[in-house]
Design goal:
binds zinc ion; two-stranded antiparallel ribbon; alpha+beta
Amino acid sequence: MPTGYLKDGTKIIPPSMLGVKMAEKTKKKISEAHIKSGLTPPSRLGTKRADMIGSKNIFWKGGKMKDYPILFQIRLSIDYSLWRQSVFSRDNWKCQKYGIVGGVLHAHHIKNFRQFPELRFAIDNGITLSTKAHREFHKIYGKEDNTIEQMEEFLCQQ
Ligand SMILES: [Zn+2]
């Protein structure tokens, strides 16, 4: 079952799983698997995220959201989260480079986020990559002036 966590600890849940209650046994199994695989940082074991509670949660009305840089705000927005889920879902929760399903997935912007504001929420401009593939892509091509051609080249490389 494809689940995972983003760098910031956000849990990735496929749309088909939303609203589905898991059996306690399953939950425990998954939690154990996450701990084993290192998906749960040791610092978070058995703790609630202090930064997500009440007034400390930046989504809290009257919170400090407005103080964050605009690009960061967009990345935390509902629209952005929907965009990411749509990209994952279209790609069947599979890294398009290595074919890994689930785990920690990244929705990469084919034409980069900063320079192409009009494509930030275009599903066609997104592609699902594993952490490894995502890191490799930006290492080779950088984070500016990214193109479809670069992505095609990257996906074809062995
Ligand atoms: Zn990227």
